[in-house]
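Quick one, tokens below:
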């Protein structure tokens, strides 16, 4: 169980760093996360599979980073032009 948590934490940090650096990486991570979740859906026990957990981490982290960035941008009075 500790190895799974360490691997998911490493994926989380990697997704954060890649989401900050480039928009294409952000889009690619979302696509990879969705693909991993779709792949895991066909496994015998999908909710406890590592593929589903990794897909959720990799797919949701860029969306959260984008939402945080948008909220910070709105809070500073800026907009996306």
């Amino acid at each position: 169980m500790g190895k799974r948590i360490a691997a998911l934490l490493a994926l989380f940090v990697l997704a954060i760093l890649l989401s900050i650096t480039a928009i294409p990486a952000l889009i690619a991570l979302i696509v990879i996360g969705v693909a991993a979740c779709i792949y895991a859906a066909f496994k015998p026990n999908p909710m406890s599979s590592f593929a589903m957990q990794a897909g959720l981490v990799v797919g949701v982290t860029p969306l959260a980073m984008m939402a945080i960035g948008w909220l910070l941008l709105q809070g500073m009075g800026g907009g996306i032009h």
